[in-house]
């Protein structure tokens, strides 16, 4: 899959894994404060001190970074084509370095990192103890071999990863770009590009660094860029250079002589903001984000452009948004660390008790053994107890064996392979399988409580399609059968044939044939509808070959409308600042463009004023229906009611709507209005207010034409996935940079927001107090009796204090929508708890117009005050900080870019796979890991406690109760494979039942399967089992004789009996825990028992004793003891006593307090097969009074751009398009009614339209006669 990544993905992958310097916090530190040059003493002369730079350069040789690498940078000063001027500022070059080690630092740094794990340090300490002969009762190799194996495997993995980072660094840094040096263009490596250089980019090239656009090959000095790698959006964005730099065009002499000086903000992570000035020949020019090309973008449909490097390498906005790469650990990992420390304390207590016992025993009983066990010089009872303490530290170390950590990593690796191999998460269309990019977080997938999702490219495909429309009171877009019943549209449904239109877009699909027939019949209202859509927009057209049109739309919804209009016979062909050329039903017509009344977020509409070839003046308007309806003529009342019904129906289907209206203008009035418009547009004061007044004046008494319905296509299965996750009690928050109306519309489309909700609160205040009041008001509406202050529970592990805000139950379902500027206040430390309380009471939360940093802050807020596991899912670079902040990061790998994938923990191609990742793989992984830990602690505590009881019968002498070979092989062979088999293959129910009952996911969120309480129960269970395993064999062997009368009550026979009972008991216990038996599990369990007996008889044979006398002292013990019936009876009795209480407890628990798992498994047993197929849900026709978001997502300012008169090529004279033969055409724009519709002006209906003009179209083929 790696070969399919876009080229820039490699850049981002390597850049985003730098962990030492480039973090959001470092950006904030650099933005606040000033610096002083140590050479000159001048403030702000240098961005950091020279002394620190020299120190850092020395330290960097050893792979180390200093805590204070740079002083704070306040303002950046850059002079074009002047490296000598820019060099003293020590700006970062364009080279990147993401590797952690070099040849000299790898071994010490890697070992230092590994021994920061408490387990590795613990086993190193044990190894040192075992090298002391006075206290060691076990061989040193029992610790050094597994420790060396773990360290070596981890070091090899780290070395491989770092070699890949070195390789990627070289690949990125060695890319070539043309740089203007000494008056000529030279091909230079990316790593050699410096701030202040002028570089040339060509079409389809990645932007090398953050550039100030100077000039381009496109008229108006525009460039088209694709930002999919930054924000996941595939529609092209437009950037425009200043006129003063655009005049240089591609003249190398002019560019080489350019010495403009840029004063701008320091490096930061704001993708949507740039502030600075350009000084050219003493004149200052303002710079903003529209003139900046960001690294990570791709140049499209632009032959060439020149840019000035402003930020390079690690200081680019792309890098600044990467945030700090942190090592993510699961909640089970954190709990295990706390438990391990508790176990160490418990181990110390046990060893202290046994050490004191040894001292007392030596004092009272030891003197009688001095004759044949003389003490060493200087060793008294107290010192003997001290040595015994350390001896038991070695013997009892199996409470935390190193095999625990090795087994955990193997289990996680195996479960991550299941994700990689899952064919049901494979997306064939793009050949993209699911990928577990980390192997340390699998079980955390089974505990997710909050999901934070991006919208564009994650929930949606970022593809807009013209779906339906309402024209003159009639709805188009649905398909009916002969009986007039509405049909569901499928792949078998007949598509409209657009072959009559040679300029049609072959990719456009529509199913309602009646609309095409209405166009062919030249119904005036239909022609006026599409004429409006062909004229009222800011789309740019490029015609490479005749008839081969390429539209550059600033927003995908405008592109969808113009493309639909093109297919229905009204083809937008070209534009100049003064005119718009369209092809109407095969005839090319040129309209004079007199004014564009531009869109903004307050107006929520745009209008154009044009003069037709016949000289008629007309205003065309499209916008939010609620806004347009307020400005209609009184005669439109009846048609407005019908159109409103259609709009409500569109809203119920989650479509995005626009209302369309027109107005014929009087020539004299327009001349006067145009003069006032010119005065207002050139006014210095109150310009915007005066223009708004003029717009309001002319945009009134309009005639309604109809409405459009555009579908912002969701990814397949998104609503069903969100519904399933909601049933699993997972809360989903959408964090998007889109405007409120768009995000709200998607919320309803994907079932996050529903009409049945009690209320959807909107927080959009612009001051801190207003935001606080809106949040408080919403909270009190949801829960009037709520306390003013939240219930906060303080806690902490290992000295880390935490505060958890308790969940508050509410009656009913609510939603919350908050925009970016309100969220900025809500995230303030004084208000964050209020925001969190209100948001967590809601079923769904949507945050609009948020920045990448705000996304991460929202995630951090929930992590900080909620004892819950979070997951963030996105597809663009603007989601990277959110993905890194969450406990689990998921990247959507598709056509929208790979940036999020490269920073994620898991990735797949479609949002719908998330439910399988969580409800199946996540839940199984969590269940398996918890079972493994419970069983592992049980078997090792049981093993160790037998040593503890035996100490009271061996004079606290630190003698082991088991054979040394059994101690070595117990965790390595005898019990390793069965528990691994259970942890890799066990499942309570299959995947279909997991989907049928999403409630099975809830126990993981509540941490029910493995917690401190369950650990204590495990220890108590081990204590009971160890008592049985020690005292039953001890009592059975006491004074026992063989069948032939010989004594078998010796130490070796007792050790064999105790260890045999232990192995059988723990294997049987694991068999009771296993819910899903496979062939592998059978082989592992019974094979391990068979292996135990085979190894025991081999090691205790005469041959092994004769060859290795000192290593195998248990000669003949196995055949002498295991041949006695009393021994097997003891094994049976011991095993039954170990298992019986567990069976009884589980029987009563399932009978009296069954869990959701018990109930579902009971249903599975009853079904004896898979779950019954869910009943097909009937397609419900929804109608909604909620107004869907208007399909108009482009930004303000494009009207001025389109009407600009500079740098625009001349358009050829209008020509007649050939090959188009419609049934006729209308000679003018006569707005008249038609049958089945309404005539708002009261004029007679067209006589050309028959009475039966396709009122209902039946989407079936006529029978062939």
TrEMBL record:
It is a multi-pass membrane protein. Its cofactor is Mg(2+). Keywords: ATP-binding, Lipid transport, Magnesium, Membrane, Metal-binding, Nucleotide-binding, Translocase, Transmembrane, Transmembrane helix, Transport. It comes from the Eukaryota. Mg(2+) binds at residues 454, 456, 875, 879. GO terms for cellular component: plasma membrane; trans-Golgi network. Residues 1214-1265 are annotated as: Disordered. It is an enzyme of class 7 (translocase). It catalyses: ATP + H2O + phospholipidSide 1 = ADP + phosphate + phospholipidSide 2. Belongs to the cation transport ATPase (P-type) (TC 3.A.3) family. Type IV subfamily. This is Phospholipid-transporting ATPase. It comes from Aldrovandia affinis.
